[in-house]
Amino acid sequence: MPHAQAHAAHDSEERPLKPALLRGWRRRCPNCGSGPMLRGYLKVRDSCPVCGEALHHQRADDGPAYLTILIVGHLMAPLILWAFTHYRPDPLVLATVFSIGTVALSLYLLPRLKGAMVGMQWAKRMHGF
């Protein structure tokens, strides 16, 4: 019985949100900040190779993709309008440049937003919903 009480007390400890979010953004373990959180591009590891924190139950589902689309869309739409009104480039040049920029920014943000979302889940003890 004392083990169950100790486990319950450990589960109720406050986990700071900001460090967990920053560690997740860097794609590091939200607990120790040293071990890699992701295996490959987007796959969350089963556990941290450094501290052993269980990560297998953390799921971000479509959240990072929605956030990526939201951020990239809100950045690119005004930039496209500004570039078109100020420079009047050829439509093919405009489409090519902004397509490459959109894909590059999306590929950069997606794993970082997934890491931050997993860090938030870890800090709030959501256990992948």
TrEMBL record:
<keyword id="KW-0812">Transmembrane</keyword>
<dbReference type="Pfam" id="PF06170">
    <property type="entry name" value="DUF983"/>
</dbReference>
<protein>
    <recommendedName>
        <fullName>Zinc-finger protein</fullName>
    </recommendedName>
</protein>
<keyword id="KW-0472">Membrane</keyword>
<feature type="transmembrane region" description="Helical">
    <location>
        <begin position="65"/>
        <end position="85"/>
    </location>
</feature>
<keyword id="KW-1133">Transmembrane helix</keyword>
<feature type="transmembrane region" description="Helical">
    <location>
        <begin position="91"/>
        <end position="110"/>
    </location>
</feature>
<dbReference type="InterPro" id="IPR009325">
    <property type="entry name" value="DUF983"/>
</dbReference>
